[in-house]
Amino acid sequence: MKDIISTLTMKELEQITYRALQESFSQVMAETLRELDEAIASGRDKKRFYLKDKRTLKFESVFGQVELKRNYYQDKETGKYVYLLDQYLAFDGTKGMSPVVQDLAIELAVTGVSYRQAGKAMEKLLGYPVISHEGIRQQLLNTEVIPEESVPLEQEVLFVEVDGLYTKSQKKGRKGREVKIASIHQGWERNGKRAKLVEKRHFIHEGNLPFWEEFEQYLMTTYHYEPTKHHLVINGDGAKWITSCRDYFRHNAIFVIDRFHVARDVQRIFREHPRYRSVRKKLAAYDSEGFMAELNSAVGTLENEKKEERLEELIAQLSQYPEALGDYRKKLEKKGIDTTGFRPMGSAEGTMSVFARRLKNGRSWSKEGLDKFIDVMVALKDNLEIKTLHGILEQTQELKQEPKAEKPPKHFVEKLKDSSAEATRNNLGYLKQAIGKPITAALKGLRGI
């Protein structure tokens, strides 16, 4: 027994078992498809569908490559040639890839680092090269996001976080593009010790209209939003295209300067200054007048030319909208709106960091590739339906955060278990060793998986 154990490591055992099960389940998949194909052939309208011959179906799956012969028909009504098996399963066998592999590739490409890394991750996970990075890109370019129906509004206020993200262009000599992004939610709800944003959605400015005009159209399409009834609380930095929301929405919107950027500037300017503590206190207390007074009184006391210049720039910027430093909740209360449960704004930076990790870091984009990628990325975040070459993309439960799908019929599961047991019987070399040896006994248990 010691001799047997010494020739096998845990890593080798796991690899052998995994590869054997992959091969076994590929056989099970092929046999199941053959049985379905024959059942379809027996029950088809034989006057309409003429059986011409059998042709090879070969595709990559999470188990490895699956190959079989399936029936090829001529539809006498249309004159076209079809695979009824593919039609019944909502699957295009000519693409050479299973829907699960396709969905996994797209998801890894969007949520991961790059197309190339997604391809490598799938190879490491499945044990063989499934799809190239260019193949993944083409799969993503052939997707279509299906718009959702309007979302009802539970209250009078919508919260908006806005920021811009600069991306590089693939074409030489052409300037990059600032992607303008808004995340919208309906407030906060407790999720254990943390607060969760309610009905969060993302808006990407891609049209020719000014940002806020296109954004308002998005609100009316996505939500039951009425410009004369609902109020917006808009958080962002001091970019002109962001602060122009004050003129566009007027009394129906409250602009809040992003406190992350202000706090960061204060730290960089005053970090070793004796007034640093008092400046931070005024900012944290939403004391806009006191905060601006502290900034103005600090002019000329920094003993650093660059910091003095940055301080003057900060004062000039905030002087345009000092009210944006105040507490938006008090302004809503003056309008008669209950602000119970409302929290400070400031998730824009977190939202942008998620997009930046995938869109920046030295990457350059074509306009078509960038638009499509962002559309799919937003769809995954907002749980929108994505139409692919193989149907509707099924997100992993971790991303979708929905209850698990219903289990398949019991008789179908039992049939697959029986088939897998039969398929694995002669695929594991260790099962053929002498009876009574520990490894043999252990591996024999795999036959019932």
TrEMBL record:
It comes from the Bacteria. Keywords: Coiled coil. Residues 292-324 form a coiled coil. Belongs to the UPF0236 family. NCBIfam families: transpos_ISLre2. This is ISLre2 family transposase. It comes from Oceanobacillus luteolus.
